[in-house]
Amino acid sequence: MNLEQAITTAIKYETRVHAAYAEAAANAEHAVARRVFSTLRDEEMGHIRYLRDRLEEWRSSGVINIFDIGTELAPRDAIESATARLRRTLAGGSPSGGGAELDSLAKALAAERETSDFYRKMVATLDADGRRLFERFLEIEEGHVAIVQAEMDLVSGAGYWFDTSEFRPEAG
Description:
Blueprint: H1 3-27, H2 31-61, H3 76-89, H4 99-125, H5 128-157, E1 160-161, E2 164-165
Antiparallel strand pairs: 1-2
Helix pairs in contact: 1-2, 1-4, 3-5, 4-5
């Protein structure tokens, strides 16, 4: 796969992840869930725009300028560390359900993992410019995987929904 094909394919992956978050935000019953999904949706749209700009540069000049693409979200290791602390704190909680949001999280997780796998492959196979372009995307998408997985873990088993308590242990 050459760089142009890789960028075009990346846009398709990002568009699919964006659509998953847009649907999840539209269908979310909880305001906090809606906010999380909307933030992720908006971040994915930023990725699409960035990749479209790089593709246009490549097509017009044969070179790409790689600018740092930021994220509003914490790095993967910080998310995993916080989730582990929260899980220890909440050990013994009962599952809280999650309904449509849990289904949306499962779809988003699958899309994020597939996208991360694609970026990992591009980092391993492309030349220096391609590798530099996709390394940051891999890092960000792995952070998204960690966020979605953490939310799924919390929703499905700790009594918390998007960091909002669903039960009070003292109430029985």
